[in-house]
Amino acid sequence: MTTKEETDTIVYDEAHFIQMLKDNDTEVFRDAFLSLHSYDQAQFYEKVGPDIRKLMYAILSPKEMADLYEGLEVDDDEYESYLKEMNTTYGAEMLSHMYTDDAVDVLNELDNHQRESYLEMMDEEVAGEISELLGYAEDTAGSIMTTEYVAIPENSTVRSAMTILRKEAPNAETIYYVFVVDDVHRLTGVVSLRDLIIAEEETLIRDIMNERVVMVHVDDDQEAVAQIMKDYNFLATPVIDNKGKLLGIITVDDIIDVIDEEASEDYSKLAGISDMDKFDMNPLQSATKRLPWLVVLLFLGMLTANLMGQFEATLEKVALLAIFIPLIAGTSGNSGTQALAVAIRGIATGDLEKENKFKLLIREMFTGMIMGVVCGLIIIGIVYFWKGELLLGMLVGAAICCSIIVATLAGSFIPLLMHRLKIDPAVASGPFITTLNDITSILIYLGLATVFLSQIG
Amino acid sequence: MTTKEETDTIVYDEAHFIQMLKDNDTEVFRDAFLSLHSYDQAQFYEKVGPDIRKLMYAILSPKEMADLYEGLEVDDDEYESYLKEMNTTYGAEMLSHMYTDDAVDVLNELDNHQRESYLEMMDEEVAGEISELLGYAEDTAGSIMTTEYVAIPENSTVRSAMTILRKEAPNAETIYYVFVVDDVHRLTGVVSLRDLIIAEEETLIRDIMNERVVMVHVDDDQEAVAQIMKDYNFLATPVIDNKGKLLGIITVDDIIDVIDEEASEDYSKLAGISDMDKFDMNPLQSATKRLPWLVVLLFLGMLTANLMGQFEATLEKVALLAIFIPLIAGTSGNSGTQALAVAIRGIATGDLEKENKFKLLIREMFTGMIMGVVCGLIIIGIVYFWKGELLLGMLVGAAICCSIIVATLAGSFIPLLMHRLKIDPAVASGPFITTLNDITSILIYLGLATVFLSQIG
């Protein structure tokens, strides 16, 4: 893990830019600023306060601001406050100039009323496209696709295709794939710019296009789309409707964001947070994000306490028993979390689809048995040499061994079951499985102890 | 989380292909098979056994097999067994035809002797390039870059650049960026194919190239490279040496693999597995992967037991105390894991760099206090209404409150400290922090109980 600190080179002088803005050196600022990459422009925009940003709105055109927004990576809720800084006509024009998928991201953050008023002020055609995109459910292909692609008819030649490409190049999100459509806009093929530039000018597109297009449906889940683009190393993938009509494309940069987002999500859930904290949240906001899980687990934990209460008589007889409870519960929780992570990651990456799930469960059972026996023997040894208690050692060892086997099986069985039931298995978060395993392991341990004590006593 | 199952369409008929191979229908097989995307070819190749694969080696040329290998996504150790199925000349020729970064991945899996013998049989120039790439340390930019890029001199025109592009197109890994170099091959600019096709043919490259090239150093960490490509939405990034000479490029498909790999790694560590299981491992192999962590944590857990042993007298006096231990330890572990995940993910995504780390710790302290007070009050309520024990409730509540605060602070402080000390903070895995928090929370609880009992008794 390395950090940006170590590799970032300073690409612009922030103070200098601010000075230019304050001094009203319009042309100097524009020349220097517009030569920056949109990501660097956006970093500057994000960092300076609203006052400086207002100077920028006065100097940069809505189109130039739309380019800057390309590079912006902020929390969604910040879009609203940025828009409030601009006058509405400027904002609407900026939105018209953005790629439709990015404009949708911004508009999604506004309330219905605001959204409508922006859409009314925007270019009618763009507003229509955006309204359609706004209708797709979250996390579907439709919600992340853009409508700025290049489409050509089947009977074009390479020459006419290149002419269309040159014309569309300034507006299209990618020109590296050209999509071939029939007269009712159904997708029939794809040609890469690589193929176009090496082909003869008179060649018919029909003759060089690839007809085995890998496409996704507008309602497909964004994770499935990411998996396909990763497998096939695509830079862009076409999105179609039920009739096979081309609706838009999804580009690789959006897919990287999806992969990142989903990894964060799975990670948060393994840690028992409903949603990852942002670093600029205040303590109350971040406590609100974490408390729900913590309280649910607290009640589950009370079940454990309640369960242990049933064994109060046993615990009163031999207080020494209690000191091994955290050890047994902890070890069982750890082995369960390991098995859980393997299963969830396997489901997330799609690797598990290729394998027999029943085979995985069998393997996990044997894995659990091996780990259980090893850990059990270690514990017998430690307790014997440390406390000189062979019987207690055997009791603790047997409990650890059984707990590990049960926990490993549960850790893989539960996510597989949830996946089968079409529930996102990642919600079977680490702490949840850990708490369940607390209960079973304590039941096993104190149950064994009670039987054992009644035998010898 | 969706799976491939739901979206995959069957793109080829496996049984049919196998039949063609067995029937020796060479031309029919070649026509149908070579029209598949390399990913689909590779899926077939992976699935069928060695016998069928041997028939494929007889029918497909080393170049065609190299194309298939483009789509192959197998565990690294499988490359060796595949290579063993081919005769060495065929294998060497196939390696010569692969993109250098992919050939490096394969050759890295062989022992020194085998690697050398392949390199000796390969095309001399390619072998030289590959040997150089093999020398870069794992996880650096050098280890994932490829040397198949298009470079042109500064004084070229758009026309001559396009001629070079057309010539290089079949071999270059990407032709969508053209890199501009001076007479000693130092990188001075970059032009996208998008810019080239809209420019006039006589324009000088010097006049349209972008001189603010974002580049990475050959020794940079691959995660830092991924971060840059994600921020700037690049399809490829040039890699340079100390003198600014262009050595290779890294393409976006490799970066997606890096992002995926690193997310898996962080995830595994949060779950306490040194390395994610492969699904085709046998129980002994997967137990071997998981046991080291489990045993280390077992010994840490023995510390907990030892510590509790110090409080045996207290536990003997009030056996009821023991039943809340798993609850307190569990809750403290959960809140610690939450804080840990937020800190680690923040470091991994680079978000934390922008913020003040001290501010994060202060926030986490207040977050811990809010969560501690809420959970503490809930517990007092439950114990009072369930057991009718107000004093015990207050003891357990106070212990939970303090434990949550300490655990939340530890969960964010420890990864930040490790990051400062240049240790990968992800090794402070979930189970490790959980076990540490077990110890502190039990110490707090039984410590409070002992003081309390001595006061009233």
From TrEMBL, chains A, B:
Subunit relationships: Homodimer.
Stated name of the protein: Magnesium transporter MgtE
Family listed: Belongs to the SLC41A transporter family.
Ranges that cross the membrane: 291-308, 320-344, 365-386, 392-418, 439-456
Compartments, as annotated in UniProt: Cell membrane; Membrane
All residue ranges annotated as the CBS domain in the record: 145-208, 209-265
Record's function text: Acts as a magnesium transporter.
Main location: membrane
Cellular component annotations (GO), alphabetically ordered: plasma membrane
Organism: Lysinibacillus alkalisoli
InterPro entries named in the record: CBS_dom (IPR000644), CBS_dom_sf (IPR046342), Mg_transptr_MgtE_intracell_dom (IPR006668), MgtE_N_sf (IPR038076), MgtE_transporter (IPR006669), SLC41_membr_dom (IPR006667), SLC41_membr_dom_sf (IPR036739)
